[in-house]
Design brief:
157 residues, mainly alpha, elongated, 0% strand, 70% helix
Amino acid sequence: MRKILNAAHIYMILGVVSGLYYREITKLTDFTGDTQLGVVHTHILALGMLFFLIVLALEKLFALTSIRLFGWFFWIYNAGLAVTVAMMILHGTLTVLGHPSGEAIAMIAGLGHILLTVGLILLFITLGKRIPAKSASAGDPAPDQTDRLIPGESPLP
């Protein structure tokens, strides 16, 4: 769980720093147009910090790290996010400095998106292994005794 929390914390720091970088580089160059640097801040905070805080809650509920695929998800997703964000920063910086960005940047960014997608697929497979499938028996199973508790009532007689 600590690894997930640390990832969220690192992305929070990177998100704040990327916002500062965007503000300062556009101020220094008197740039007023559109650039991808303007959305790096929110991408890192949403796809990094908030996403891993949600994964942390899912870990607490379903013990996702007990599944071997979780490690694959964690590193592939982080690699995809790192590649994607790095290409956004590179493309945005080149735009601010008035230089064209080539097709290579777009291709590498596409690779980052593919890695993010593979990571998300692995997360859903991991979740599927930890969340039990619904019973295949006919009709709905009888509710558990705890389903009928009145708030504040003890489950013990």
